[in-house]
Amino acid sequence: MQIDVINPATKRVVETLNRSNVEEVNDAVATALQSFETWRQKTSEERGVVLHAIADGIEASATELANLIVSEQGKPLPVAMMEVGGAVAWTRYNADLSQKPEVLEDSEERRVEVHRLPLGVVASITPWNWPLMIAIWHIMPALKAGNSVVVKPSSNTPLSTIKLVDIVCEVEPGLLGFVLGGKVAGEALVTHPDVKKLVFTGSTPTGTHLASLIAKDLKKVTLELGGNDAGIVLANADIDKLASKIYMSAFINMGQTCAALKRLYVHRSKYDALCNALVDMAKAEVVGNGMEEGVTFGPVQNKNQYDLVTSMIRQARDSGSEVIAPELPEGLDGYFIAPTIIKNPPLELSVVCDEQFGPVLPVIPYDDVKEVMKDAIHKEFALGGSVWGEESDELDWVVEQLDSGTVWINNHAEVLPHIPFGGNKLSGLGVEFGVEGFLENTRRKVVSYSKK
Ligand code: NAP
Fold it and tell me: Which of 167, 175, 328, 348 is the most exposed place for a label (fewest CB within 10 A)?
């Protein structure tokens, strides 16, 4: 069985690749295990030097990587360049992390240290929205900690990951391998006895299924899953100052970002002003093929996502909600959906209750923030949340109420290499980024010297 990689802006096949069979998965794990045996012997500083060389390689291939991302994922070239820039930044951050033993006690009686050791071969399974960046998020902390990695990219967007594997292996052969395909390759990889950890980013059903497959072996697991992030705009919010940030938080990467703003609750006194500003920004987008100069807004990545998001928009229109979107330019033949604002949607609509993961934002007016928080806090998901407004007791109260892994104030969807990021409830397990995320790629060994 083969994989056709489709350009979502043209629906044309960019490249056809073979899915990996179980034997090829076993070979990839065996190569990674062999590489692990020498890689683990290196000091943390030596591994840091290698990661900086990999970052240099990514920088040297930035244009090629960005072109691959546009052709397989659809985002505009400047956003793809930003993704490559993020990949470099995360790689260099991990390169510089130190891995010295932590001294817990050094008294007359004893000296106790915590050592952090690598796990072995780590399996990484990635989605199609930020294919290079999310692969880097998985791979670089795992490598820095002394592990080797086998990555399984989404079948929709494998090309930039394959190029990344080339770059890494040019610096350190065998350290990073890849396998291709969904269930067969993916499940053979995560259940392989020599794989000691799974780091997965994708949908909640797939993530929980894979976690259940490896639970009996007590393998480590980090899951970054779906979300349905709410933003609350308070009555005292400065709309002129914040509207463009709110727009970007929702429509970044055509809304296909796990931690994007997906439901916006706005105090009625600011509702029309904010909706008008969001609609103006949507109208200013240049929708088209991400390779064309001047294009600011690309297609969604695949047909399933296109069908899902357009059906949610249709349902909203049928419900009598006001659906506002600019006309698409003529002559486009890809999975294009214009940035869409939905005013006054009923709260039970799918576009409000379920994750859209696409370029549509339901905007819901409210009068009483205490009441609206009952809807804003999602029963199942808790990845990110935000509150927009001036400092006040009300703002503090909303921050306290939100139960997500991250709460942003006057911002949303900002992720940084040194700040831990992860979801609560069905949005995830464990954490990525920062020292905390790095440590998820290690096992702890407590070393206790008795001095008496
Ligand atoms: P998905 O269908 O769960 O796929 C994610 C990955 O899992 C792909 O590589 C896929 O491979 C693989 N996969 C699917 N079934 C598998 C199986 N049985 N065994 C092993 N691997 C399997 O999710 P998606 O559609 O790519 O991504 C969209 C979802 O991801 C959204 O819900 C979004 O919220 C979430 N997401 C979360 C974050 C976060 O950080 N929290 C970030 C990005 C996306 P194939 O492509 O070959 O099927």
Answer: 348
- Find out if CATH 3.30.497.10 is the number for domain 230-409: no
Q: Which of 224, 355, 394, 440 is catalytic?
A: 224
pTM for the model stands at: 0.97
Q: By alpha-carbon position, which residue is closest to atom 4 of ligand 1?
A: 202
If one looks up domain 2-225+427-450 in CATH, what number appears? 3.40.605.10
Q: Does residue 224 carry a catalytic annotation?
A: yes
CB of 358 shorter than 6 A to ligand 1: no
In angstroms, the CA 216 to CA 350 distance is 36
Residue type, 177: G
Per-residue CA distances from 379 to 271, 386, 402 (Å): 25, 17, 12
Cβ of 308 less than 6 Å from ligand 1: no
Pocket lining: 128 vs ligand 1, CB cutoff 6 Å:
yes
Q: Mean pLDDT by 10-residue block, N- to C-terminus, for the chain (452 residues)?
A: 96 98 98 98 97 98 98 98 98 95 97 98 98 98 98 98 98 97 97 98 98 97 96 98 98 97 98 98 98 98 98 97 97 97 96 97 97 95 98 98 97 98 97 98 98 94
d(CA 44, CA 153) in angstroms, rounded, equals 27
Enumerate the CATH 3.40.605.10 domain ranges in the chain, comma separated: 2-225+427-450
Q: Is 301 a pocket residue for ligand 1 (Cβ < 6 Å)?
A: no
CA of residue 185 to ligand 1 center, whole Å: 14
CA dist., res. 114 & res. 101, Å (int)? 5
